[in-house]
Amino acid sequence: MKAKAEHKTNWTVMILLILGLITIAFPLYMTIIIAFKQPSEMTNSISGILSLPSSWSLDNFREAMRVTDFWNSLKNSLIISVLTVGLSIIIHSLMGYAVGRNKAHSKFYNFVYLFIVSGMFVPFAILMMPLAKQTAEMGLGNWVGVIILYVVFYMPMNVLLYSGYLTNIPIALEEAARVDGASTWRTYWKVIFPIMKPMHATVAVITALSVWNDVMTPLVIMAGTGQNTLPLAQLNFQTQFGTNYNLAFASYLLALIPIVIFYVICQKQILNGVVNGAVK
Amino acid sequence: MRKGKKVIGAALAGCMTASMFLTACGEGNENSGKTEIEILQYKPEAATYFDQVEEEFNATHDDIHLTIDSPNDASTIMRTRFIREDYPDIIGIGGDINYSYYVDAGILADVSDSDVMSNIKQSYKDILEALEIVPTDGTYGIPYVANAAGILYNRDMFEEHGWEIPTTWNELMTLCNDIQSEGILPFYFGFKDTWTCLAPWNSMAVALAPADLCKQVNRGEANFTDEYREVAEKYLELLEYGPEDPFAYGYNDACTAFANGESAMYPIGSYAVPQIQQVNPDMNIDSFVTPASDTKEGNTLNSGVDLMFAVTEACENKEAAYKVLEFLYEDENIQAYIDDQNAIPCKEGDFELASQLDGMTEYIESGNMTDYQDHYYPSEMAVDAQIQTFLINKDVDAFLKKFDSDWMRYNRDIIREVQEYEEENGND
Amino acid sequence: MRKMNDRNRTFLLITIPILALFICFNTVPLIRGVYYSFTNFKGFGDYDMVGLRNYMDLFTDSRVGRSYWFTFRLAVCATIITNVISLILALGLNSKIRGKSFFRAAYFLPNVLGALVVGYIFNYFFTYILPEFGKMIGSEAMSGSMLSNEKTAWIAVVIVCAWQSIAMNTIIYISGLQTVPEDVYEAGSLDGATGWKKFKHLTFPLIIPFFTINMVLCVKNFLMVFDQIMALTKGGPAQSTESISYLIYNNGMSGGQFGFQSANAVIFFIVIVAISVAQMSFSARKEEQL
């Protein structure tokens, strides 16, 4: 702490950063006040929209929770997100390991690598119909199917990240374990997997963020199962002929909380993760 | 490191348990012995009403168990369910081109033998028949409720200034001038949301172009350049009386502005009333038929089927489906729906209409109505965006020319089908 | 030798099942999609094979052409703006300031706000607040809504896209900056390197790998832009902001053009893969040079 205090705070930068924060604070301010207002307080005049709500009542939040069946939708969203993130970390890191360790000297693994990474660029719209049909035929037209699809969708990006990170881990570490007689499988779990912990955090945040906000996959795959995720339930607020922005904003604020908490927890890990991942 | 492995093990075990638990839950709600009927309807805003109907039906029927689904983005859900061949028993959709496609694809069953059919107003039955791409023997949908588009106006403001409801195009233009001279904006538009461009378009086109224009074009008997010219020209005149930059405001902005008394009139459908009243619950709104024609007699109400029910071909128990439909079409249920949604019933009978439709009652009662032209437009042609482009560039000729050429491109397969039918049946 | 076999076998045992999963849920549906691109499938009901008709149509459809022009213009501008601002922001956040964690968390927020919220707020900003500001400073050009003008609407989309993606890019750059060892700077300052020179010759070369990651992610995200279009303009005004993904989704899924838009998606996929491969190999060469 003392060493830090010796450095002079760069006040110019600090002021610029605070000014920059306006671009974040302003939308956030609007979101919060709209979430507290009543529909009858909505106007098209600037002073009207920027003014504080007439009362800080939590009615909108209560109503939004009722309309979205909040706890149930939250539970579904949490289950899907947690399982997807867990499976992604296990499966994608394994794949990243196999590919990352071999693509430099093996044509086969290099092909597999490019094949999977190019999957990142397939427009979802073209896959949607065939996937709806296919998952139904396989009996996966439910949340299990959604998780499997997520694991596949985010594989390209995560394999890219993991295999990049692995180039930074000296192969000597594995060799040391091998000399002790451990199998490759064991070595992976005992040595490599724990070392990649920072990368796991990066993958966890990126994947969780995408899954948490995604509407299309559950909409298409879980249609007719009667189960909602939070983003699906939030569609309730908008129909073609009318949108209740006040309830919608309240609901979005509620949905924001878990993911922000998750980000704050992972923040430190992410930074470490990318640091070691991409620099050779 | 040990710890890490244990955590993963625990996580995996957790996944397994959770999945077993959830699967078990999903299968737990089967009603043995009862016939299951599932309705999938596309109006999420009416979900509360349908939940109530579902509850009442199940309470009074022992042999049938009814489920009504009112999902968001129902059109995507319907399509994905069709592609997985997981058809609901009954679908509730609008009377637009999707209905035409579904009939054409053989997804829907003939319901002409249903008892409810006999009490439905002929004008709405005709509207559905006309939507079929090529004429068929059967009837595939039962109209439930309709909506109407015209011009909403601020009743209090009109009374205060002593303005009269116009019945011809000239009267409308005079009225707009009067309103403007008082320093009030005559119309508000929300053209940033392209679909709202269609509301005035439809309500003028019903009076100025043949009702079956699109079908005539498909048969090669007419073109849009001739028939839509007057609509396009009058639309530009209307634009003069709107806000300075109508393309800056969306539907929601326009509803809010109209609700706050920023304009005297708002050319949109009856469906906008709830959104307007959300902002101003006490507003006194009425509506009138857009007087696009130069004579009073030339006008007709722009009204189409907003919600209809159709039984799918895949439905295993048609009789049970009919029973459900009979319940849905009972007078008090329809009345409850139109109270809830400001709708117009498609059934004959003594129904009480919302006060916002007062100015249109005459047309509704006499059955003088014509379907929306856009119910024939394929959505991928984006006619709404083309109208928006036209209103920005104000080039009538270019717009109409593109309309004709785009129509041929986007409707290629339909035109071929229609012409094959014409050749086979020699309709001349 | 036996150990090497164990290693190879393990790698294969890992690769094959995961690859199979990937093929099953990505490649197989893609192939089905490619198949539909040769039909006039609407998304339901019967369909006919139409050969190459969809592909021929693609090249004569001015709407598709314009969507490519718009999307690429957007992608190039947004990529540049995003990268420049994130880099500056990252330098700022990495300098000697107080409350680093707070700032980093705050600048992350745009990433998490939902599309409906972002759409509403920016619509409001461009429709009411910015014109009011324009009138106040007496600027003719700024007193109209940017979103209602064909010439400026795409700029508004660029702004919102950049605003949302700066967060992620900044984090990646910050991490990059932290790998620059202090002694590099010390050595540099002995040579008298300051400001821009210091950045250009000392800092930037060291974070080139992060620059590459960001460029690839940006180009990919912006070329496939969809949410921001739906939230801001829905393709308007006058169809001037229809992105490729917007067309594919809107006309293929909601409309009855599934076959045709599948063809569009196939071509788009090929184009975007080609660009990314070119970009990655270009960056790789650049990295070697430095």
UniProtKB/TrEMBL annotation, chain A:
Statement: the UniProt record of this protein carries the keyword Cell membrane: yes
Pfam families with a match to the protein in the record: BPD_transp_1 (PF00528)
Topological relation to the membrane, as annotated: Multi-pass membrane protein
PROSITE patterns in UniProt: ABC_TM1
Compartments, as annotated in UniProt: Cell membrane
Residue ranges of the TM segments: 12-36, 78-99, 111-131, 143-162, 245-266
Keyword Transmembrane helix: yes
Major place of residence: membrane
Residues covered by the ABC transmembrane type-1 domain: 74-266
Keywords: Cell membrane, Membrane, Transmembrane, Transmembrane helix, Transport
InterPro entries: MetI-like, MetI-like_sf
PANTHER family in the record: ABC TRANSPORTER PERMEASE PROTEIN MG189-RELATED, ABC TRANSPORTER PERMEASE PROTEIN MG189-RELATED-RELATED
Family: Belongs to the binding-protein-dependent transport system permease family.
UniProt-recorded name of the protein: Carbohydrate ABC transporter permease
Species the sequence originates in: Drancourtella massiliensis
Automatic annotation (TrEMBL), chain B:
PROSITE patterns (UniProt xref): PROKAR_LIPOPROTEIN
InterPro entries for this protein: Bact_solute-bd_prot1, SBP
Superkingdom field: Bacteria
Keywords: Signal, Transport
Signal peptide: 1-24
Annotated localization: Cell envelope
Similarity comment: Belongs to the bacterial solute-binding protein 1 family.
UniProt-recorded name of the protein: Extracellular solute-binding protein
Originating species: Drancourtella massiliensis
Automatic annotation (TrEMBL), chain C:
Subcellular location: Cell membrane
Membrane topology per record: Multi-pass membrane protein
Top-level division of the source organism's lineage: Bacteria
Major location (coarse): membrane
CDD domains in UniProt: TM_PBP2
Domain ABC transmembrane type-1: 68-279
Pfam families the record matches: BPD_transp_1
InterPro entries linked: ABC_transporter_permease, MetI-like, MetI-like_sf
Keywords: Cell membrane, Membrane, Transmembrane, Transmembrane helix, Transport
Residue stretches spanning the membrane: 12-31, 68-93, 105-126, 153-174, 206-226, 258-278
Family: Belongs to the binding-protein-dependent transport system permease family.
Protein name listed in UniProt: Sugar ABC transporter permease
Source organism (scientific name): Drancourtella massiliensis
Lineage: Bacteria, Bacillati, Bacillota, Clostridia, Eubacteriales
